[in-house]
Amino acid sequence: MDTIANSIILVCAADDLYAMPLSVTIRSVLENLSKDRTLSLFILDQNIQPSQKDRILQSIDFENIQVEWIKVASPTLAKIHISNPSSYPLSSYFRLLIPYLLPADIKKVIYLDTDVIVKGDLSNLWDIDIQNYYALAVQDVAVGCFSKVSHIDCQKLGVSPDQKYFNSGVMVINLEQWRIHNIPEKALSYLEHYPLRFPDQDALNIVLAQHWRELDPHWNQGHAIHLLSSWKESPYEESAFLKALNEPYIVHFSSQPKPWMFGCTHPEKDLFFHYLSLTDWAEWKLTPFNYLLSLQKRALRKIKRLSQKITRLSF
Prior knowledge:
Blueprint: E1 8-15, H1 19-31, E2 39-46, H2 50-59, E3 65-71, H3 98-101, E4 108-112, E5 116-118, H4 122-126, E6 135-139, H5 154-157, E7 166-174, H6 175-180, H7 183-193, H8 199-207, E8 212-214, H9 238-246, E9 250-252, H10 269-276, H11 288-313
Parallel strand pairs: 1-2, 1-4, 2-3, 6-8
Antiparallel strand pairs: 4-7, 5-9, 6-7
Helix pairs in contact: 1-2, 7-8
């Protein structure tokens, strides 16, 4: 990528099931990006079909973006505990490997989950000085701090109950610090030995405790913010809470069902369909057939992961 030194560097990860949401996420980024900025996009690819890749590229056919596909096939990930393979596909763990999957001269990236819509200019996130912090992230609105994470034994894992807990769906990652301090290995070690409930997110919070800088919560509006009666029930100050609720830069559909699934009641789900209408999936509708097809793919993915686990246990 000739222009990578002057680009915003964005990383997303997806499997074939998330090809459509991925295209929606990236399209929302491009629609709201400053016209004088360029985007270098790395897609961490878990078996996305060629036809789906073509549709993604058609959906994000802008002059100011360059795309590179990185096929991920790591035996390291075979060791980790996946508590719910249907909710947490293997591709969701790829963020842990970003420092080693991207060229060594790349020092910083933005990572986005593929269930987010970007309403603000990602340039403003990119331009925040990361200093020597390992990551920039938003405190999780549903959890707040480790004392509210009932499935984590703080004393056993060596973290303070008062330590803030972040959502890993939107991060600015200091790849240089991750490489120096072996963050991928440390996170994967936790996943190998502890069956954590929110696997990669729990592991990153444990490993990065006290080494990450908090972003304003409008950079990652979690679904739980809509379930609170007031800012006092959140971990945020009143002004930050209200801006995240009413003027989010990034909307994160962080719970299920997602907008492309039956039963979604998220108050901003129409935002997803707005950007969907700008992609190659513009004619896609939430029909029983499409929903059953997605359920079938999820079931096959879960069966595959369970069979792999059984195979490992048999040796």
